[in-house]
Amino acid sequence: MTMHTTLSHHINGRWQLSAATESLDVLNPATGESLARVPLGTQAETSAAIEAASAAFPAWRATPPEDRIQYLFKLKTLLEEHFEELARLITMENGKTLTEAKAEVRRSIENVEVACGIPTLMQGYNLEDVARGIDEIMFRQPLGVVAAITPFNFPVMVPFWFLPYAIACGNTFILKPSEKVPLSMNRLFELMDQLGLPEGVLNMVHGAKPAVDTLLEHPAVRAISFVGSTPVARYIYAEASRHGKRVQAQGGAKNHVVILPDADMEMTAQIISDSAFGCAGQRCLAVSVAVTVGESHRTFTKAITDLAASINVNYGLEEGAQMGPVINSGSKARIESLIGKGAEQGAALLLDGRHAKVSKYEKGSFVRPTILDHVPADGELSRTEIFGPVLSLVSAESVDQALGMISRNPYGNAASIFTSSGAAARKFRNEAPAGNVGVNIGVAAPMAYFPFSGWKDSFFGVVHGQGRDAIEFYTEKKVVIERWPREWSRKF
Ligand code: NAD
């Protein structure tokens, strides 16, 4: 790939140097080295992207869906051809292991595949003779210019929750990737130059709040998709709505898993270990609190502690690495301080991952797997999103008590249960107040053809990302009612 010293925006089919006076280093979280600099794009640059997308919309909208998806078939091929390269880039800028990065690229491709079904998915419906001689038809039409603002933890997959569906539906699109991990999408835009898309259909601006605020305020932007932390999600939802836009804002999480004594403990511990410590706990679907019911506490605690202690923490490009660093030193300091607070408030530190050192990578932001036991169910550690490799253990006497804990939690992204009882699983599935529910599943991640369905403070909006929800979000419905009296046909 071309490593740009300072990244450029991609506006109207061309790379454009930013005139911004501020820029940031894009750091490799494992080595601490700077990979590039990212400009904090200006309002004028973001407006230029919006204007390019607006100008491209009429012709793109008029392009038949069948023709639009041909670009996506080519994109799928490009992604497969550059699979390894993109995964390595994700590892370098985000820190997750190469295996995890490959899984991310695979999930991204699946969203392209689903969006290739737009000629079917975008269909409306109709009915003849809603009254005598009157028919009614519902068409779905694209909105216009739409934008996505995305987080650091999935540099490619989260943009791909939106990009393929948006353009397949006939919208033109602007991405504002995370300024912490802009390289993979930058590379993807280089690759997407080969698609031959009309200028202005896909645009990317680098930046932070000023770029985002321009997207939220500009009258030509019709819809905003956001994924990131809850305080920012709340802000985006309020501001975008105030400016009359359609908005879906996915926020943070605090996911609970409930373990019943009848669960297959070996399998449960392995899956929960992968969920809590995979991607160094920086997944919005990662398990953060394990609620053990009754005697499962004893067996689960031993199994999970042994497994977590054995995880090979290393630079994600090193052979055998099972967990990489967290995103940066600020995040490491925040996570370590929360671990300290938990211990001060009475939790027992079964495994303390603070002050981790990884040989050859002394400048890396590593935190090893951490387990705290006897965490107060409604204490700070049980409520706060840690977004690091930290698992809190909480005890409950019954499924109802565990469900009460989940209900009192402000977030509702995911909740899981591990059990061999169908009745307990069914009760949990029915009553758990979360939008993504797992039964004997550690990361309840919906496939691309289902909605990514957070609830409560994990989501602000109505229609979610991915699958049929994406088509609902990126189109508006037009109902046409036609009168063609039968008598008129006698003329012919
Ligand atoms: P973040 O909220 O700090 O940043 C997300 C995006 O918002 C970035 O592009 C950033 O530039 C922009 N931004 C940040 N502050 C802003 C402000 N004040 N005004 C306008 N824009 C602003 O999130 P992050 O640290 O990059 O990502 C981690 C968070 O994302 C976690 O809370 C995690 O749970 C959440 N997340 C949620 C989901 C989900 O599906 N619910 C998925 C992935 C990540």
Short characterization:
By secondary structure, this protein is of the alpha/beta class.
Structural summary, described in words:
The protein has helices at 43-62, 65-81, 83-94, 98-115, 118-121, 157-160, 163-168, 183-192, 209-217, 230-242, 265-277, 296-309, 329-344, 380-383, 399-408, 422-431, 467-474; strands at 9-11, 14-16, 23-27, 34-39, 125-131, 134-142, 145-149, 172-176, 202-204, 221-227, 246-250, 255-259, 287-293, 348-351, 370-373, 390-396, 411-412, 414-418, 436-439, 455-456, 459-460, 475-483. Strands 14-15-16-13-12-18-19 form a 7-stranded mixed β-sheet, sandwiched between helices. The model has no long low-confidence stretch (mean pLDDT 97). It has 2 domains: 9-251 and 458-479, 3-Layer(aba) Sandwich (Aldehyde Dehydrogenase, Chain A, domain 1); 255-439, Aldehyde Dehydrogenase, Chain A, domain 2, CATH 3.40.309. The protein has 17 helices and 22 strands. The protein starts with 8 loop residues before the first strand and ends in a 9-residue tail after the last strand. A hairpin with a 2-residue loop joins strand 1 (9-11) and strand 2 (14-16). By secondary structure, the chain is of the alpha/beta class. Helix 3 packs across helix 4 and helix 3 runs antiparallel to helix 8. It binds nicotinamide-adenine-dinucleotide.
